[in-house]
Amino acid sequence: MTYSAELIAVGTELLLGNVVNTNARDLSEELSTLGINVFYHTVVGDNPERLRKVVEIAKGRADILITTGGLGPTYDDLTKEILAECFGKKLVYHEEIGAEIRSYFEKRIPSASMTENNLRQAYLPEGSIVLYNDCGTAPGCAFFAEDKHVIMLPGPPRECRTMFANCAVPYLKRLSEAEIVSQTIHIFGMGESAVEEKLKDLMQSLQNPSLAPYAKTGEVTLRLTAKAQDEREARAMMAPVLEKVQTALGDVIYGIDAGSLEECVLALLLKAGKTIATAESCTAGLLSGRLTSMGGASAAFLGGVAAYANEVKTAFLGIPPALIETEGAVSDKVARAMAKGVRQRMGADLGIGITGIAGPSGGSEAKPVGTVFVALETSGGTYVRALRLGSDRERVRVMAVHHALDMTRRYLTGLPVEQIEV
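-> C-alpha cells emitted (422 positions)
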C-alpha cells in the first residue's frame, strides 16, 4: 500500500512570516525517501476552531496526519487537545513524562524554577505511543484511529528533525513490509532544465525505481528511490539507473549521497592531504564559513581573509595598488593576485580568490552587477573563472562560493578547471 500524508504546521508566527516553515521542507524530503506521498501542506494559526477545520479536512484526504508545533506548555499550545478531540480521545497524564520534565529543569536549567504549566506537556491522547524528545521538554506522540495514523512533533526545527528521525521514521517504516531505499545524486554545473532534458525519457519510463529532480540555488539533486523486499534487492534495481544517469551527466555530478559541495571538497582535501586558504571580497567570508561549518575542517582549512576594501587587499594580500588602479578591483588579475597572496601568506597548498560586484549597485556597462572572478592558485598554476551571475545579491554571493568549491573539487579529482592563464 502506498500512503499519503498531510503536514499541518501549527503556529501564528508562521502565518505572520516571523518564522520560516523549514519543517515542511525537511519532513517532505524525508517522507519521500520512505515512499510516502505528501500531497498537502497546511499552515494554521493558534486558533482552536480553525485547527479543528484543518484536521477534519486532512482526515478526508490523507492516510497520515503529521503536525508540527503547538506541543509546548503555554495556553496557546493546543495541538494535542484539538487532535484528541477530533479523534474522540481523552488526554491522559503520563507520570514518567512529568518526572522527565522535572529532571530536565533540575539538570539543565538549575537556575530556573519550573512552573507547573510545563506539566501540561505530560498529557497525551489515550493510547498514544510516546515519541521522546532528546532536545527539549515537549514529547511528541503517535496513534492510530479512524483508519488514520496521527503523528505529532514539536515545532522547533532541531527538536522536530531529531524526533522525526529517531521516533517517527521507525513508526512509519513499520507500516510497510517493503524496504524503501534512496540515493541522492548531487549536481553542480548544469541547470535543472538541462538535467531534465537529458533525463526526461528515462524519468518518464520509470516507476520502481523512480527518479525525481529537486533544485536549489546553484545546485540540482536527483532522488533515486526503489521499493523492494530488502535493501540488497532495492540497490540492485537502482544500479542500472544510476549508471545511466552518470553516463548522461558526466562530471557535473559531484557526489552520490555526498551531503553538500563543501562536504565533498573537505573530504577530497583531507584525502589528498592538502590545505586551503581563502581571500574573499564580495562573499566576505561566506566561503570560509561553509568550509568550517563541518567538524574536522581545521585539518585542511588554514584561514581566510575578508578583503572587502582595496586597502585590505594591498595591506594583507600584497596586491600592488597599481594593479587595482589599472585593472579594477573586480578583474581576473586581481582575483589571481588575491588567491596567490593568501596562499603565500597562509602557507597553504591551495588559495582561493573571489572578487565581484554583488549589487544592487556598483555595476557598469563593462562590468555589470553579477560580474565575479573566482581564482584558484595551486603549485602548478592559476585557474580563473569569469562569471556573470545575475542581479540578485544573495544569489551572486552563493553562486560565487559554489564555483570556488567546484573549481577546487575539479582540481583535486583531475577534471578540467577552466584554466585562463598560468
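The domain at 179-256 is CATH 3.30.70.2860 (Alpha-Beta Plaits).
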